[in-house]
UniProtKB/TrEMBL annotation:
InterPro entries: vWFA_dom_sf (IPR036465)
Protein name: VWFA domain-containing protein
Source organism superkingdom: Eukaryota
Length: 1051
């Protein structure tokens, strides 16, 4: 037999097909592992000498600590590969055979890591067929971040930090980087096929195979038959249907085929957070004719991969038919507006409108709304006031492009399908739109991915002051850049990462183009998304969102420059004019919900980004012609939102440890209210901060003026004031490049300072509002600064007050212990335990009106104060008395030190041990979140019993069975290990082991078991001085110190 099939890569590229089996070996995959062993052995034994298939068997599995992807050696001979596969065991990574606990853990598996590992072994010159054999979905975000999911996430991050962490984005990168076809073989028990596998097959011309039964022999025979068919296809150089019909028909009895329909499947750009968003319809071929056709299609794909032909890049995220119809409407509408349309153009517009309306109806979320905009656009074309004529400043190129656009459309592929087709259609729009370059930083979501949908929150670092460009020219700049992703401004030679669609008030034709495009939100969102991301993705509100963010950022930059009289450079002024003009003429009113609220109620939504609020004010001021009612109040509300947003930003920076001079420090604010004493003794008197009354402080006029004077000097006031004044003048169409003669800003500096002081104290925008029953934000009629001020002082002094309280508590404890010792040593007669209990209950110490008493946790120290003659009464009262609410079980870790004190009375010693080992009594009538009630109290992690197990199991709380099994396992371990601990020769080791073995909870059980084992086996060899020191640390810190190795004999 030849070893050529599994040989190393010692021949020219494209001369054989890399066949990779990605095999899930987690706990439920025993049959599939056996099938793989049989298939490899049988196929390689009969494969012949043709060097067509290069076989690989990779396994993937995981534990709560590690993600494993293990690969068969790249240079294996056939015999080597057979030996390798024969040794594969369930839940045991071949590269880490010592880890026999890698059984998967959670329901999902690390299949994304297995797929991603292909990038490490292959490149774009390799031709690959990858079979993913599994019975579980990958780790979707919606399934939660289990330890296994986190282990895979760590693996993916370490593989290549430049690769996206999102599974669908990573899949895209793999498909783009490799000539590959995925063929998932899916065993998911509930009959559902995960969309990750469906999309992997769809993107690469593959299919999903579903075995009809879970039988190792069936899978082995099926895979052998399929491998022979693939090999025969490659050898013959074509799919020989007549010769392979019998073999393929036999496979139709073993598998059904599942496929995502390319016409209806909505591609996942990212892994959705909500589980329901993963559901999509797909097709199942289970008839003999359909399955046979699907398998022959797979053989055709095999031939494509072998010859190096890549899977076609489908157009995703956008409907090509909708794009084509929208472009037709856009061009024809502009021809009518500018007077270039003929009768046949108007007839064509009617046809295009009907087609676009039909396409829009498919989208249940936006279809009705966009159809309304479409009908309004075409209705407005009939009115003469909507016609537009070129001005002297209009680009002649724009007119030429407009005249030839319709001829260009007729030459394009009328049914676009590929990315290239859609881009060709979109180029027409790019030539008719104006843009400017800028650097944008978009916000990120919880997974750290760029969130293009949240354009209102984008941050604009800087903008280009070069000449505006057509969007077509901008894309050409990007396509010719070194990285294919940035724009080199031809005027300034600066580099920018984005381009923003804009109109200009001096160019009526391009402004009309902009307005027309804005009436087609999906097309506008596609064009702007293309300029920002380089991909064909629709973000309907991205244009106005970026314009609003750019306006806010530019105004802020100008205000921070502290220019005299707020005079703006001409190039910056042109930017501001263009942005405001674009937002003002948009056919679809941006932030329309905010505009309505401003108009009707005057209040704002504190959850809206300030850029959105400012955008809404543009449309509101345009509507009321700058003369609406209550303008001063409404602009005051806007200022409050702007300044409070700045406060929140400054606080976030400081919380991260970054310097920020935007607002006064907390210490500076507090100093306006509290005068710090020169010297201070916390035992002698209370600090002013401890007796601070915020309500009284706010009534003090001098304090208020001190605070206002402080705030006036900070940028938080100056910058936001100047930014709002610039915005006011801009909306009143004043020339910002010259000193303004008119100052009709509706708010005084005193009013703005007052609002700034309030905002600094309130800290959050929502504190001025309350949520109504309808979940809408309503302006509060009673905004109090008392609570926020009290919190500010408390936060400023919390650590110092805490240390003062600790000092007083330690002082009080020392006094109480002295009193106890004095009483115990001063009493010679026999006193009953109950009497001591009452005395302990009434032993208190008062300092600054605060009453202190001892607690059960003080018992070890209290016992050291008790003479031997009172140990059986006072000592017993200290350990088990009712003088404190703390249960005796709190002393469990001190058992080894306490019990010997009662060695002279074995009966009492037993009672003391019983009291310490008992559990606190639960008083809950209703079942809590853990399933405990007064009738079924928690016995502690170490107190498992069958009755407790049965009652709690019946509550059906999440993960209860696993937790109960863990408790039971540990209880059995205790029963086994305690006799061994009692046999330890060293009392110190006995005390340490007894302490450690009783400490654990669910999270620390394994650690405590390992530590106990070490003490039993090696404790006698260790330095007892170190052991004693370690015991003290464990007594103080519990399981936090368990497992440290510094004390061990080998350390």
């Amino acid at each position: 037999m030849s070893d050529s099939i599994a040989s190393s890569k010692n021949m020219a590229k494209n001369k054989f097909l890399e066949v990779v089996f990605l095999l899930d070996i987690t706990g439920s995959m025993g049959n599939q592992i056996e099938a793989m062993k049989r298939m490899i052995k049988e196929f390689l034994a009969s494969a012949g000498d043709e060097p067509t298939l290069h076989m690989h068997v990779w396994t993937f599995t995981e534990s709560s600590k590690k993600c494993y992807v293990c690969k068969s050696p790249a240079n294996s001979t056939n015999s080597d590969l057979i030996k390798y596969v024969t040794k594969i065991q369930l839940s045991t990574p071949p590269s880490a055979p010592h880890d026999t606990g890698a059984y998967g853990g959670d329901y999902e598996e690390n299949s994304v890591a297995a797929v991603s590992a292909l990038l490490d072994s292959f490149d774009q010159n390799d031709n690959i067929m990858a079979f993913i054999i599994t019975d579980a979905p990958p780790h979707h975000v919606s399934a939660g971040r289990t330890p296994e999911a986190e282990a895979e996430k760590k693996w993916l991050a370490e593989q290549d930090p430049s690769l996206p962490m999102d599974m669908f984005q990573r899949l895209d990168r793999i498909v783009e980087s490799l000539n590959i076809t995925f063929v998932p073989i899916n065993y998911e028990s509930h009959g559902h096929v995960d969309p990750f596998y469906l999309q992997a097959a769809l993107l690469t011309d593959g299919v999903v195979l579903r075995p009809t039964v879970n039988d190792a022999g069936l899978l082995a025979n099926g895979l052998v038959t399929l491998m022979h068919a693939m090999q025969s296809t490659i050898v013959d150089g074509k799919v020989n249907r007549s010769e392979q019909a019998s073999a393929i028909e036999s496979l139709a009895n073993m598998f059904s085929i599942v496929k995502a329909d390319p016409d209806t499947w909505v591609m996942f750009e990212t892994d959705p957070i909500a589980p329901g968003q993963l559901r999509q319809e797909y097709k199942t071929l289970d008839g003999k004719e359909g399955i046979t056709a699907g398998l022959f299609g797979l053989l055709e794909t095999t031939m494509d991969r072998f010859t190096g032909k890549r899977a076609g890049k489908r157009c995703r995220s956008v409907d090509p038919d909708t794009v084509a119809a929208a472009v037709r409407v856009f061009v024809l509408a502009m021809m009518i507006k500018t007077g270039f349309a003929k009768d046949d153009h108007k007839a064509a517009l009617d046809v295009a409108q009907a087609e676009l309306a039909r396409q829009l109806e498919k989208n249940v979320e936006t279809g009705k709304r966009e159809t309304f905009y479409l009908n309004r656009l075409l209705g407005n074309l009939l009115t003469t006031e909507n016609s537009v004529k070129p001005s002297e400043s209009t680009s002649s190129q724009c007119i030429i492009t407009l005249q030839s656009a319709w001829d260009t459309i007729s030459e394009l592929e009328q049914v676009p399908t590929s990315v290239e087709d859609v881009e060709a259609w979109m180029e027409i729009v790019l030539q008719l739109t104006l843009c400017r370059l800028l650097n944008i930083r978009f916000p990120t979501d919880a997974e750290g991915k760029i969130d293009f949908m949240d354009a209102w929150s984008a941050s604009v670092k800087n903008v280009s002051y070069g000449a505006p460009l057509s969007a077509y020219a901008a894309v050409a700049l990007r396509n010719h850049s070194d990285d294919g992703a940035t724009y080199l401004d031809p005027s300034t030679r600066e580099t920018f990462n984005s381009a923003l669609l804009l109109a200009h008030p001096d160019d009526p034709v391009l402004s009309s183009c902009y307005t027309t495009l804005s009436a087609l939100p999906s097309l506008q969102g596609l064009v702007q998304g293309y300029l920002v991301s380089g991909g064909l993705n629709i973000f309907p509100s991205i244009t106005v969102g970026l314009q609003g963010s750019t306006l806010l950022s530019n105004l802020r930059i100008i205000a921070q420059a502290n220019k005299p009289n707020l005079v703006v450079a001409p190039v910056a002024y042109e930017w501001l004019r263009s942005v405001v003009w674009s937002l003002a003429i948009s056919d679809v009113v941006p932030a329309v919900d905010v505009v309505k609220v401003i108009e009707n109620e005057g209040t704002l939504n504190p959850e809206d980004n300030p850029s959105k609020l400012m955008t809404a004010f543009i449309r509101y001021m345009k509507k009321v012609d700058g003369k609406g009612q209550d303008l001063a109040k409404k602009w005051k509300y806007l200022y409050e939102e702007l300044v409070t947003n700045s406060v929140s930003f400054a606080i976030r920076l400081r919380d991260k440890g970054e310097a920020c001079e935007l607002i006064p420090t907390d210490e500076a604010l507090i100093s306006c209210f509290i005068e710090e004493p020169t010297t201070y003794d916390p035992l002698a008197l209370l600090h002013p901060a401890e007796t601070f009354n915020a309500g009284e402080a706010l009534k003090d006029v001098a304090t208020h003026e001190k605070l206002r004077t402080l705030v006036r000097e900070y940028p938080i006031f100056k910058h936001n004031r100047d930014m709002l004044r610039l915005f006011w003048d801009l909306l009143h169409q004043r020339d910002l490049t010259a000193v303004r003669e008119t100052d009709d800003f509706p708010l005084t500096d005193d009013e703005l300072v007052t609002a700034t002081v309030e905002s600094i104290l309130l800290r959050k925008r929502t504190t001025r509002y309350v949520l109504s029953e309808s979940k809408a934000w309503v302006r509060s009629t009673d905004v109090s600064l008392e609570g926020p001020l009290a919190d500010l002082v408390k936060k400023g002094y919390v650590s110092r007050i805490g240390s003062w309280k600790t000092l007083r508590a330690e002082h009080a404890r020392a006094k109480l212990l002295q009193a106890l010792e004095k009483k115990a040593h001063g009493t010679n007669e026999v006193v009953k335990e109950s009497t001591w209990n009452n005395l302990l209950k009434n032993t208190v110490f008062t300092l600054h009106d605060q009453t202190y008493s001892l607690t059960r946790m003080d018992a070890p120290t209290m016992l050291s104060c008790v003479p031997d003659q009172h140990i059986s009464t006072l000592g017993a009262a200290i350990v088990r008395g009712t003088w404190t609410s703390g249960p005796p079980s709190q002393l469990r870790r001190h058992t080894a030190a306490i019990l010997p004190l009662f060695s002279n009375n074995s009966t009492l010693q037993t009672e003391i041990q019983t009291a310490i080992n008992s559990q606190a009594i639960c008083s809950r009538e209703l079942v809590n979140r853990h399933g405990h009630t007064v009738k079924n109290t928690y016995p502690g992690f170490t107190g498992w019993n069958q009755d407790y197990n049965d009652v709690r199991l019946a509550t059906k709380k999440p993960d209860v069975a696993t937790k109960l099994a863990t408790m039971k396992k540990y209880k059995l371990y205790l029963d086994e290990v305690m006799p061994q601990i009692e046999k330890l020769e060293s009392q110190l080791l006995r005390e340490l082991a007894s302490m450690v073995v009783w400490l654990p909870d669910y999270n620390s059980a394994t650690k405590c078991m390992k530590e106990t084992k070490y003490i039993l086996e090696n404790g006698g060899k260790c330095d007892l001085t170190k052991v004693a020191d370690y015991k003290k640390k464990v007594e103080k810190s519990g399981t936090k110190k368990v497992g440290q190795t510094w004390w061990r004999c080998e350390a």
